[in-house]
Fold adenylyl-sulfate reductase (glutathione).
Amino acid sequence: MALLYLIPLINPKTLDKPHLPPAAVNFSRRHSSVKPLNAEPKRNDSIVPSAATIIAREAVEKVEVEDYEKLAKDLQNASPLEIMDRALEKFGNDIAIAFSGAEDVALIEYAHLTGRPFRVFSLDTGRLNPETYKFFDEVEKHYGIHIEYMFPDAVEVQALVRSKGLFSFYEDGHQECCRVRKVRPLRMALKGLRAWITGQRKDQSPGTRSEIPIVQVDPVFEGMDSGLGSLVKWNPVANVKGDDVWNFLRAMNVPVNSLHTQGYISIGCEPCTRPVLPGQHEREGRWWWEDAKAKECGLHKGNIEEGNLKDNANGAVHANGTATHADLFSTHNVFKLSRPGMENLLKLENRKEAWLVVLYAPWCRFCQAAEWSYVELAEKLAGSSVKVGKFRADGEQKAFAQQELQLGSFPTILFFPKHSSRPVKYPSEERDVDSLMTFVNALR
């Protein structure tokens, strides 16, 4: 009888390496004998080249499909340390901690305590307080790590400042500045990951964070595999009170940002952050000139639920108690079209310019997830032969959109060629900028 022997595959590179028990593994990445997969030790390496542009791996891990809603319920009573360990164990080098330079340093301490290799990235907007920059350096030295900094695009920042000045957010809201300085760099960072870890807590913001789960499929951003559902978001301290976080930091003798001793609790960019008075909620120190119920910069926009969303830049609720919703795709490069405007587009057979139009509903989570890609596409097409528009197609307009505009589900994207009245429907579920631009270039 022939015998079949199953021989495990062994990486020859590991034959010469001694096995280290967990207790022997140094917690930090700088001095650790055990490095995360594809780790890049150089300070000037961004999170993107260390994860997103790897051409080949020694081994390709196939991640099992998991029900994250069930996992969130299973971990509801777990400690932050247990949750952190679970996240790092599951995703290895494809997960990173998002560090803002505030009390979320607790995340780094928890990761350190697991004994596992871990990565940390931060968004340097160019407008942070000097104390925050000093704190970054202190954290790096304390834990022996290199924070992977992400920066905004210099050309975009220059265009924003030249056209609107340094403090336009005081007049027309913080979303545009945050989109350039924070959201787009974050999007680039997350495209190199399969999961990320945040310091969100339910008690941080009564209007936007009261329902955040321990772990979830990210409703807004995409990971390295592209498409909605390709990124997992972990919130290990979601159920922890702010006072308990501070008790933990003191007990573990963790370094903290010196701004906290000056009355700052929630810390962001210098022009948009101020100390709070005793008895004030911590988020009252952020964007204090705007509605207190919707203080998100775009990094956690998926938190904003129905009833807390707004119909304009700063939010509104009707007198009868009916909540309105934040409008989407709000930029000067996207034209808001009315019902007569759409009817005219359908009639014109010889347009001077082609049009790309998104049919959307502000309450639709998929529309919210596509917002930044569509806005970025509009900026790329600005000044070209293609105009970019939006048409709100829910409510009274839904029947018209279904009958005349091929609306099946939200969002639906249509291209109106210059010499044809019949629009072409974008057929793909891929709504990243490159896919949308390929569609436009194929038709214009």
Observations:
- The chain is about 30% helix and 10% strand.
- Residues 41 and 219 are 31 Å apart (CA to CA).
